[in-house]
Amino acid sequence: MAEHVLDLTQYHFVHQRGDLSIYGTWYGNEHQPCLVVVPTYRIGADRCRPLLIDLDDAWQWNPEDPQAMPQVNRAMCMAFLDMNGMDTGNVFSAMKLVTLVHDHLGDLIAMPVKPTTGVVVADAFRTDHDTGKTHHSEVIESV
Q1: Residues 116, 143: contact at Cβ < 8 Å?
Q2: How many C-beta atoms lie closer than 10 Å to residue 91's C-beta?
Q3: What is the pLDDT of residues 86-113, one digit of tens each?
Q4: pTM for this one?
Q5: What span, in angstroms and rounded, lies between the C-alpha atoms of 24 and 117?
Q6: For the chain, which residues make up each domain, given as ranges?
Q7: Which residue in 74, 80, 90, 107 is deepest, having the highest Cβ count within 10 Å?
């Protein structure tokens, strides 16, 4: 079974603003925290192209960072809008997208590590020799 690099069925948070949804989720083999923006009406569609901002690049979206490059963010926003068949001629579409990302940068930074799914692989029984009580524990393997 193929493993997806980005799985929007597992997320820390999701918010919808108009025709855009933003997910706080994890991606890649190392499960890096990231923000993912997708058009709400195209979630799960074959041609849905997400905008992904990982934790390492979040500083580039901070409007107060003097080293941030808003022209690069603008190009990314316009490409996202274009690839998803959204209005690239309306400057407010790009502004709404940038504002959505700005509003959730703090949420991205505060995200916990991805919870792992555990599978019980064994049972362990321990007997206390002084009292004779038996204690049961499960051995869980993270998948």
Answers
A1: yes
A2: 10
A3: 988 888 998 999 999 999 999 999 999 8
A4: 0.76
A5: 18
A6: 13-109
A7: 80
